[in-house]
Specification:
Blueprint (H helix, E strand, L loop, with lengths): L1 H29 L2 H9 L6 H11 L15 H4 L2 H10 L12 H36 L4 H15 L2 H15 L14 H32 L2 H8 L4 H12 L1 H17 L2 H7 L4 H10 L3 H29 L1 H5 L1
Amino acid sequence: MTSFLLRRLLYALLVLAGVNLVSFALFFSVNSPDNMARAQLGGKRVTQEAVDRWKAERGFDRPLYFNVAAPGRAKLTDTVFYANTARLLRFDFGSTNEGRNIGQELAERLPVSAAVALPVFFLTLGVSVAAALGFTLFRGTGLDFWGVVLLAALMSISSLFFIIVGQFVFAKVLQLAPISGYAPGPGMFSSLLLPVLVLVLARLGPDARLFRALFIEELGKDYVRTARAKGLAEGAVLGRHVLRNALIPIITQASLLLPVLFVGAIVTETFFAIPGLGMFTIEGITQQDFGIVRAMVFFGSFVYVVAFLLNDLAYAWADPRIRLG
């Protein structure tokens, strides 16, 4: 297991380095330090001296990838790419164009995004598995038929529809929650109730339908027939055997869901004015702030790497054959 973890950590470092290189190349293929400086300083009327000073203050006055004028190793190390890459791998994200510390911003905004993502993660997983088990238990009945119809309808509706309808019904008509905004402390529950509910509904359709298909496929296997032959009730067969043997794909789906909730909450946080990581990403894109964009890309890839590492460990817990291997 130790060698397995070391291999996975090595792969994680390679993935992070690759993502870092690709994001750097893509950003500077459509932008340049001069354009970044002019966008921050006020447009085309800015003097070249002011542009050069802005670049020197932020380390963008050096070559991007290769410094021909530098001696020895400095040809590679005295570059914008190396300086930013080495700093990112130490989790030093630098500063925004306005001088704010990006690491501090992430530390302040991460708990806000976690307050939305973690409840959605556990509620979506629990409700989807429970609904799929219920539809499987009553398969072939009217409950199963209309349940599948409902899940298909939920899959067909955009998350924007859930946001707009949720704001109208729960905030304007029923007045159970504010339309938008974030209130830390005691008011956090009411301000996050609506976005959590919207995200759970948006994910319920595809996840529950996938789990139902997995459970029905498991019902046709030999161990299920053996369990029924021993006299176990159908509910016990589903709970004790089918659910346990379907854990691998459930774990896979869960490992995909968690980073999506953390990194992909841009639309939700924008509509509900939640000052989390999604709003921070939008800020970096609209302001063409390379530091914010690159930090969020790096953080997103880091979350995915950690999620898949936990996914591998969960595989080993769920399946003894993986532990023995």
